[in-house]
Specification:
about 375 residues; DNA polymerase, domain 1; Arc Repressor Mutant, subunit A; nine-stranded mixed sheet; three-stranded antiparallel sheet; about 45% helix; elongated
Length: about 375
């Protein structure tokens, strides 16, 4: 079957109510092609998990009213640019998730290296009401990623999303906006200028057809696309009920890396990030070259990028050498613990024995030092000084 033939059946099945991405995957796997599935009898469809009586009734009623070839022609008149899993251009990483969008609409400048995985994508998400601290870090990290060949992916919402898109483009990099509306609908409208900038140098994508207006149920669903497209997801600031945590959950399910920006324990915008860190998310700290290496970039050795003291876009470009940061003045117990540590990793029990401190106090001190970016934890409860 040609690609054109196959894609019209992806489109036709997506127009059957009650048939979502997961059922479409099952159909494709069971029958080998969606054309075969389209021509299958109700008895054959009934063998597939999820096809109960009500679903089968909808398929029988609606399938008889759809002509796949005519539907494709009519659909392309309003939605000229879209991919289906039958298309080579469909993002490779997105194919791997359990619920890939059957139709992925796009608008802007396509870079096929992003779709094929040759160019790495990193998601940056967070609260719509960030603090200056969150804005500063988002600008710093987005700029650093863009200047090192990464494409920044976010959701074009207010706050962290807006800062990540803008900073990536100002640094001369590409960005992808995954929206919960049609690709021709600007939401929020205050991001009209940002939307136009993205179209000029990046791409806006959605699983919803043209003219689809904002719907509160769409945005949690689009978060799975952000996670699915990316090699890793960075959560900059997020409260306990932030949608960014939904993106992080999807990233975990899809076996993507998750990193979080630590903050003060009494700041609400940091509560979601601290929770992610306690659950094993990677820690974002001042050593951005370490983050780049973990994400797959290869910056020159012995180069560090300290956080700037203002919330401007004045960010060092790799590989400009930067002086190493001096260890800040610490509380006595923190200083005692860090003085015990070395470059080589030491087991927790040895640190307790060496310091002579209570195990609970040592554990608390190590966590504080880790959040400050001075200590890193390795598997097996081993710790080393950064």
């Amino acid at each position: 079957m040609s690609i054109t033939e196959d894609r019209k059946y992806w489109l036709s099945w997506s127009h059957i109510s009650g048939i979502g991405p997961i059922l479409l995957q099952r159909l494709h796997q069971h029958f080998g092609s969606l054309e075969t599935a389209w021509k299958a009898s109700p008895a054959e469809l009934r063998k597939i998990e999820g096809f109960g009586y009500q679903t089968l009734e909808k398929v029988v009623q609606q399938r008889s009213k759809i002509n796949p070839e005519q539907l494709l022609i009519q659909h392309q008149q309003i939605n000229p640019n879209f991919w289906t899993p039958a298309d080579f251009e469909y993002p490779q990483l997105l194919r791997e998730i359990p619920s890939p969008p059957p139709i992925l609409y796009y608008r802007g400048v396509v870079d096929l290296e992003e779709n094929t995985g040759k160019k790495p994508l990193v998601g940056i998400v967070g609260t719509r009401k960030p603090t200056e601290y969150g804005i500063k870090w988002t600008r710093q990290i987005s700029t650093t990623l863009a200047r090192n060949g990464f494409t920044v992916v976010s959701g074009m919402a207010e706050g962290i999303d807006t800062e990540s898109h803008s900073s990536a483009m100002q640094a001369g990099g590409r960005t992808i906006a995954v929206v919960g509306t049609g690709v021709d609908v600007i939401y929020p409208y205050k991001n009209k200028n940002l939307y136009q900038q993205i179209l000029n140098s990046g791409i806006v994508i959605s699983e919803y057809p043209a003219k689809t207006t904002p719907n509160r149920t769409h945005f949690p669903r689009r978060n799975r696309i952000i996670a699915g497209l990316c090699r890793a997801v960075l959560v900059m600031e997020a409260g306990t009920k932030s949608g960014a945590l939904i993106t992080a959950t999807y990233a975990n399910e899809f076996c993507r890396d998750v990193y979080a920006l630590p903050g003060r324990v009494d700041d609400e915008p940091s509560q979601g990030c601290l929770k992610l860190i306690s659950q094993g998310a990677g820690l974002i700290n001042q050593q951005l070259n370490e983050l780049l290496m973990m994400l797959g970039a290869i910056p020159q050795l012995d180069i560090e990028t300290p956080i700037t003291n203002s919330i401007t876009n004045s960010v060092p470009v790799f590989p400009t050498p930067q002086p190493k940061l001096e260890t800040p003045k610490l509380e006595p117990e923190l200083q005692q613990v860090i003085d015990t540590l070395a470059v080589d990793a030491l087991p927790f029990d040895f640190i307790v024995q060496k310091t002579g401190m209570d195990a609970g106090l040592v554990s608390s001190s190590l966590l504080q030092l880790e959040l400050m970016g001075l200590v890193s934890q390795l598997p097996g409860m081993r710790y080393q000084r950064i």
